[in-house]
Amino acid sequence: MTEPTIICPQCRVEIKLTESLAAPLLEATRREYDQRFTKMEAAIAQREAAVTAAQRALDEQVAAKLKTARAAIAEEEARKARLALGTDLEQKTRDLAELQEILRQRDAKLAEAQRAQADLIRKQRELDDARREMELTIERRVQETLGAARDQARREAEEQTKLRLAESQQTIAQMQRQIEDLKRRAEQGSQQLQGEVQELALEALLRERFPRDVIDPVPKGEHGGDALHRVHGPLGQPCGTILWESKRTKNWSDGWLAKLRGDQRAAKAEIAVLATQALPRGVDTFDCIDGIWVTALRCVVPVALVLRQSLIDVAAARTAGEGQQTKMEMVYEYLTGPRFRHRVQAIVEKFTDMQADLERERKTMTKLWAKREAQIRGVVESTAGMYGDLQGIAGRTLQEIEGLEMRLLGGGD
């Protein structure tokens, strides 16, 4: 701890105050300050006593003055109250007289108003009696003419009812015809809507099951089935096309197969599948009929899996031999591929149709030829008989007719 120092005012030399030097100075300074503090406390006590005495004297003077002022004020207020009371009493007396006069006037007016009200009530009663008498008279007259008017109104109402009934019956008949027409249109629209819903469901099912493939719907009004299923391999390479056609009817039709084959050739699809609710006879789940796969709706996914995998396998085999193909191999591939088979099937179908038409024409012409041959034979035989009769009558004088000789009629060489 640093020791305190003092500076000499004369020579400006610092002098360290050690405990031996500082103790007498500190004691003298403490005694000096204690004496000053004692004197100050005595002076403060004297001043407080003087202030207390002055305050007490001032309070006594204020109390005396306040008492004197209160007595003067009370006397003045009492005098004013007596004057004001006398004035108010006079004013209230005058007001009471005026109120009594007003009450007398109001009583007179009230009696007059009551008399007028009594007269008014009496006149009102007389008017009510006269009105009731008039209403009774009018009611009797109305009752006298009401019978004829009621009969006339009943007849007019019956005629109007008959007319309205006829109009209602005609309206009901028209509405029934409209309802039948609307039912027929609704059934047609419902069948078409059901077919469209099944097509959309088939497309959604194929997209969900084969997300890597491309399912293109065939636009409405265009030939070519309902959806083209473009199959893609594991690496995204195109492997072939499946043409889907959906039917939602109760009866099977063989004409669907021929139409779908034509749509398959137009779409250049390798495979055509007909998903139908009504299956041909002998088919429970799916089968290949005349080159068209026919399947029930519940078997769409398994059939699609098998056919899709077959296209992927064929495409993989074709890709493996692409680098070694020659012209002859390409021709062989075309001859053994589905496109050539489709072409030949189309030609065979047309030839089959032509042969069927020709067979029908041949049968028809054979019938006509047989009929005409019988007719000609009958004419010739009749002519020959007539010629024989004439020859028997005329003898040898009748000239021979060429074509009717015995040899031509069955008696020749």
Provide mean pLDDT, rounded. Answer: 76
How does the overall form come out from the CA principal axes?
flat
- Between the first and last Cα atoms, what is the distance in angstroms? 181 Å
Low-confidence stretches: 406-413
Q: How many strands, what sense, and barrel or not for the largest sheet? A: 6 strands, mixed
Number of strands: 8
Structural class, from secondary structure content?
Answer: alpha/beta
Number of helices: 6
* Rg on CA atoms, Å: 70 Å
Which percent bin holds the helix content?
A: over 70%
Order of helices and strands: EEHEEEHEEEHHHH
Q: Provide the spatial order of strands within the biggest beta sheet.
A: 3-4-5-6-8-7
What is the strand content?
5-15%
Your description of this structure?
With 413 residues, the chain is of the alpha/beta class. Among the domains are: 73 residues; 111 residues, no CATH class. The chain is built from six helices and eight strands, in the order E-E-H-E-E-E-H-E-E-E-H-H-H-H. A six-stranded mixed sheet has the order 3-4-5-6-8-7, with helices on both faces. Strands 1-2 form a two-stranded antiparallel sheet. Strand 1 and strand 2 form a beta hairpin. It starts with a strand and ends with a helix. The C terminus is likely disordered.
